Amino acid sequence: MDPARTPLGQMLLEEITPVVMVLSTPSVEETCLKNGLSFLQMLTPFCSFNNIDVPVRTASDQPYRIHKFKLRLFYGSNVRKPDLKVAEEQLMQVITESGEKVFSELCSDASKVNHEHASSEDRNTPSWFQFFNKELVRMASFSDHEAFDHPVACLLAVSSKDEHPVSRFIDLFNTNKLPSLLKDGAMDPKILKHYLLVHDNQDGSADRASKILTEMRNTFGSSDCVLLSINSSLDAPIKHQDNPWASQICDASSNQDLGCFLNIDDINEIKDLMQDLSSKHIIPNMEQKIRVLNQQVSATRKGFKNQIKNLWWRKGKEDGVDSLNGPTYNYNSIESQIRVLGDYAFMLRDYELALSNYRLISTDYKIDKAWKRYAGVQEMMGLTYFMLDQSRKEAEYCMENAFNTYLKLGLLGQQNATRCGLWWIEMLKARDLFKEAATVYFRICGEDILHSAVMLEQASYCYLLSKPSMSRKYGFHLVLSGEQYKKCDQIKHAIRTYRSALTVFRGTTWSYINDHVHFHIGQWYASLGMYEVAVKHMTEILACSHQSKTTQELFLSDFLQVVEKTGHTFEVTKLQLPVINISSLKVIFEDHRTFGSSSAVDTKEGLWHSLEEDMIPSFTAAKTNWLELQSKLISKKHNQSNVCVAGEAVKVNIEFINPLQITIPVSGVTLICKYSTSTDELTSDAKGSSVKTDNEVDHFRDTSSYNSSFLVSEVDFSLGGGETTLVQLSVTPKEVGTLEILGVRWKLSGTIVGFHNFELSHPKKNIVKGRRKAKQSPNEKFKFMVIKSIPKIQGSVQSLPGKAYAGDLRQLMLELRNPSEFPVKNLKMKISHPRFLIIGNQENVKLEFPGCLTKTTDSAQSGAHANPNVMSETVFSFPVDTSIQGETPLSWPLWFRAAVPGDISLYMSIYYEIEDISSVIRYRTLRLHYNVQVLPSLDVSFQISPSRLRIHDFLVRLDVINKTSSESFQVYQLSSVGHHWEISLLQPPDAIFPSQTLMAGQAISCFFTLKNSRRLSKLEHNISTMPLGSDVLLVPQCSQDLVYNTNNVPLVNFHYFERLQQKALHEDLGDLNTVDLVLIYRPLNSSISPGLPDPPHVITASTGPISWLVDGPQTLHHDFSASFCEINLKMRLYNSSDATAFVHIDTTDFDGSGEHVNSVNAVQSATPDNQAGWHDVTPVNEIKVTPNALETQQGKALLLESVSPYIWSGSSSTNIHLEPMSSAEIPLQICVFSPGTYDLSNYVLSWKLPSQGLGDSDETKQHSGKCQGYKYYLTVLQST
Amino acid sequence: MIVCVAVVGHQNNPLYIQSFTEADDALKLHHIVHCSLDVVDERVNNPKKSGPMLNETFLGLLYPIENYKVYGYLTNTKVKFILVTTDLDVKDADVRNTSFIVVLNGIYYQTSNERMAQFELV
Q1: In CATH, what class is A569-589+648-678+707-760+779-789?
Q2: Does A479 contact B at CB distance below 8 Å?
Q3: Which segments cross the bilayer (chain A) (predicted)?
Q4: Any chain A CB within 8 A of the CB of B117?
């Protein structure tokens, strides 16, 4: 790469060029001012020559050509070190102006806080940096330690109007007025002078001027005197197409008038003048000077001898002057001359020569400790290396060395250090070492905050440009620089840098930084009075849950302040505070489905659907009805949109979350809705129209539309730190049409209005009750077709307990109201859990509970009971004449029984039809949902075993355990259901319940005998012949009056459902030998549950249809010495089934196997604990209900004793047919050979029933069985 | 003194930043840690430069800034541990051998209670 083409090269070629000092008289200036220019300004555009092609020969003999050249013109008064303060101010102005300019650009697109635009433009470094840097570099100009700013020539200009022009020339170059550089001896005052006579053509002809010129030529020599006539354009001002002066004077207003009197001839004349000056005077002059100096330097310094001498001489000088700046060097000192030689060579692009001289002088200065000069030379060496494109390392080393040396000088070297740094940076940049450049920028940052701000900003761009780009450092330095800008009140710059930094941090999770940046941008915008933008930035940080509480408070209070300053309620589309949990969004509306409570709403639609299946007319039928009736009104489109009824609220549940730790007040939370009267509108238009405009309009519309077509609810609440609140909002349409819910709006702290658009966040919508069309667009879900008002029944179940003990029986009341004027008809109801809840009769309303359950009550309604057909029909239809209207509610009794412990959800659905045929909705359902917690109360278990004493008798053991924690119960009554069972106590109740109560945790057992009173098959059940003894009171002193009738209304119904339930569990139901027992008990302190609990039913069976009894002696005396003993036994058989049974009895002799064939009967399977007192309680000890385990043990024990076996001596196998409900007797005989105790269970009884006909529901019924004989012990003693 | 320890996820998201100074310099440390990720990225993406460090998890001195030195440690799962210290004349080897282990242990114990939840995100 050609170094001259790099930015640094360009800069050097422009900045390190020969200086021409211009001295002019006031009249010259006056002449030029006619053109709006000063004399210097007029000449300046023509000072750079791009194609001059001058041969140059410096120290070497080989000439080379210079094509580009530039002169720098300065008025004599300006040839001095710039005043620091003025320069600073100028710099400040540069910054401020550029700040304004860039900021206004920024603001133009700030209106749309468009975050995307940032990427491309911002990567280009702002152009004003270059200008600023140039100004900074110029601050260090005209220093006495370097020679390239020293004027190489002086241009003296006198007007032809001036009196005595020649003497004026002499006056101008008066040593007293000369700049200090020339006066103090820092540079040679004998410089090239060029005399210029300026003639204004408007003042008349050039005669006088040429006369003066001749005079001048005589005085100063002919070659150095020139005449310049300007303002040749006499009348018409000239408009220059591309005005050469435009770039110099930034004041844009007078741009057109610049040089208005200068015609093309004038301009050409100026051009020629300057070209002549440079190529014919300045360059040759410099060449000559270089040669002269070079000779001198060679003579004094080159060569070994000179070097030794120089070294020795400098050593000696060392302990001389030791000022901070080192010794002062006069212009004719050899050091200065070398430096001048180097600089001249540099300016004439003889870099080799320059470098050798710089090197030469560098060591001298170092030894002399002339640090500033040393640094200056090092700096130039670096630049020369760069221009030579040699040894990059060397170049950078020199620059760094110079920079460090300048820095060491402190204030003195400040400007130079900056300049050196900037050049160094450019050098690094030219080599793509942006990262290194950035660190240099960082080092330039000195005391001056403003400068360091600019430097930091430039450093940040370096990071961005470096490869790979370091965007984080870019952001960081922008933030740093922004902070510095802020410190010097350059707010606009600060905003700019922060905004650029935002592009880095946006989208990252570095929220602390993000918050900081947004917050400050907001603050700064606010300080500029741009509140709208400020608010936009501040809203970004409101939901800063990660910040500390104080910071949150600060953010919020600042934000509210800014909002307040805007002076109106501010509206923000995506206010982060409070956060809306969109996934919690739920739209609840009632079309043909209405809900009694919110919990009913939450229940799954499928559950309701299955419940209502039987009640509602089939869907297709309904649809055809619709289409027939409403085909004109309802297009297919509408079938898909939701339907709601005018006057009935559509509710929306939304969760608001406060992410902060501080409390925020939220008020005026309402839905944003759109209403249109036409029902067809939503099909055609509105789709294409942009959502945005819609919303824009609607924000404002909703305030005005309160009165007309819909009503929205307003909610105020205050969210504590970290709280989440579920808010229910509602909108009630008043007229038929289309209603659309667009979003929600709320007011934060009463000043700022936030919106949330539902449409914008479609993906996870949770519409609960919407018809689940798969392809419903999100918008559709919030669109409702409002139909005209139809009746809506409200209903509730009165006094349903939330908590009940298992078995608790209560009477409840269902209340239905119809507030509307229109009648409804065809009411139906279905209940999900008939075990828990059944529907009573209208007459029950008047009944007193629980008295109505006792037997004394009028048996009138007991006749209406127990119609299983009614019960099996799960849908209950209210009587046809039932009408609900107006204020008076319809009450309907319900019976509740807590069947099993646990948490039970009861669902009820009430169906009704609307009499108004023209309505879109023909029917509606009211859905009620209640939760009941059922606690365990009594644990009841029964065991039934056949009695071995009487063939129709069974022994019932009842075990009751009170499972509650504190409740006491009174076990009141045990009843058997059905008519062929008699039950009686074995002991008086006093013996069982001495305290009459069952305390918490107490367990009790009692025994009953159960008698099968069923006689030979009477197929016509006579209900009126109610057998006595089917109920047993367990409370001693109660009269028979208070016996509860288990055949009464609710009990029998619950019994039915209980059976249904158990049927599913037990197969052998339907066997005739099952008995259902009902235990009635009641809580002692009836304050808890006044009703009487109904126990779990226990359905039991005997050993099958065949029961038998072995009858015979228990103890015998026999003289075995005489003979063996023959014993006759009888077996009585009874068939309790409806069919003739075939019974086969096999006696097997004792074979020692002891095999136990367990029949399928259910009784034995229940294994009770071998409780003490079991045998004592039973008065008849033949009844052996022994556990299986015990039985086998005993068998084994007998074996071990090696009891001599007995022999069945009768017929070993007997077959008989047993008629239904009849009994038979079979003789049995055994032979015993020795005294002992014998177990006569060695027989097997098998029975068989003829298989039932097809279509019988009891397919699973047991048709045959095999039973092992039960133990029967016979003791034979030796008779004496 | 170690001023700050940070754990940064593989997507350069901050998982945990803990400063050990009394001063309110959380933001500054956030910036420093954030910036040093540039250097981490550079080292990870330019294995040539790191040369023998290719398979090293210890990234060494990342970033000298102002009065701090920043050291990095990269796990196989691209989770970065960043350590900011004020010891300006500390040696790399020291940091490598002791500081990180000590600090990471420190974090482990310190965070075993409530902070562990955050760590599980790693």
Answers
A1: mainly beta
A2: yes
A3: none
A4: no
Contact B31 A471 (CB under 8 A): no
Structure-block tokens of residue A367: 């030894």
Chain B residues touching A513 at Cβ < 8 A: 27, 30-31, 34
Give A595's strand partners. A927
Query: What is the Cα–Cα distance from A879 to A895, expressed in whole angstroms?
Result: 18
Q: Does B13 touch chain A (CB under 8 A)?
A: yes
Whole-number pLDDT of residue A859: 42
Nearest to B38 among A470, A512, A516 (CB): A470
Residue A767 is classified by DSSP as -
The encoded tokens of residue A69 equal: 């050249």
Question: Cβ contact (<8 Å) for B31 and A513?
Answer: yes
Choose the weakest-confidence range: A8-17, A324-333, A1024-1033, B83-92.
A1024-1033
Give pLDDT, residue A315. Answer: 62
Mapped onto helix, strand or coil, the DSSP state of residue A958 is strand
On whether any CB of chain A is under 8 Å from the CB of B34, the answer is yes
CATH node for A938-1015+1028-1101: 2.60.40
Question: Whole-model pTM?
Answer: 0.66
Split at pLDDT 50, 70, 90, the class of A310 is confident
The answer to whether the CB atoms of A479 and B13 lie below 8 A apart is: no
Fold of the domain spanning A1104-1151+1202-1252+1261-1279: Immunoglobulin-like (2.60.40)
Cα gap A812→A810, rounded to integer Å = 6
**CA–CA dist B60, B41 (Å, integer):** 13
Question: What pLDDT, in 10s, does the model give residues A52-76?
Answer: 778 888 777 778 888 888 888 888 8
- Residues A732, A650: contact at Cβ < 8 Å? yes
Q: Do A513 and B38 touch (CB under 8 A)?
A: no
The domain limits of chain A are 3-81+141-235+263-284, 569-589+648-678+707-760+779-789, 794-854+870-935, 938-1015+1028-1101, 1104-1151+1202-1252+1261-1279
* A3-81+141-235+263-284 has CATH 3.30.1050 classification: no
The type of residue at A58 is T
* Structural domain count, chain B: 1
Give the whole-angstrom CA distance, residue A40 versus residue A43. 5
CA closest to A463 among chain B residues = B38
Q: In this complex, which of A473, A512, A516 lies closest to B38 when CB atoms are compared? A: A473
* CATH for the stretch A794-854+870-935: 2.60.40.10
Domain with residue B9: its CATH number is: 3.30.450.70
pLDDT of residue A939 exceeding 60 = yes
Mean pLDDT of all residues in B44-55? 59
The per-residue pLDDT for range A822-878, each reduced to its tens digit, is 778 788 888 887 778 878 776 666 666 666 666 654 444 444 444 444 455 567 777
Confidence grade of residue A316 (pLDDT, cut at 50, 70, 90): low
Q: pLDDT digits over A753-805, tens only? A: 887 777 644 444 444 444 443 344 555 677 788 888 888 888 888 878 888 88
Q: What is the pLDDT of residue A620?
A: 43
Do domains A3-81+141-235+263-284 and A1104-1151+1202-1252+1261-1279 share one topology? The answer is no
- Longest pairwise C-alpha distance within chain A: 193
A137 interfaces chain B, CB cutoff of 8 Å: no
SS3 state of residue A1042 = helix
Q: Nearest by CB to A512, from B12, B27, B38: name it.
A: B27
Q: Report the candidate in A385, A446, A460 with the shortest Cα–Cα distance to residue A416.
A: A446
Q: In whole angstroms, what is the distance from residue B118 CA to residue A569 CA?
A: 40
A303 phi-psi bin (left φ>0, alpha ψ -120 to 50, beta other) = left
The pLDDT of residue A966 is 79
Q: Within an 8 Å CB–CB cutoff, is residue B7 touching chain A?
A: no
Are residues B14 and A509, on separate chains, in Cβ contact within 8 Å?
A: yes
Contact criterion met (CB < 8 Å) for A471 and B14:
no
Chains A, B: CB contacts under 8 A, how many? 35
The pLDDT tens digits for A1063-1095 are 655 544 445 566 777 777 777 665 444 444 444
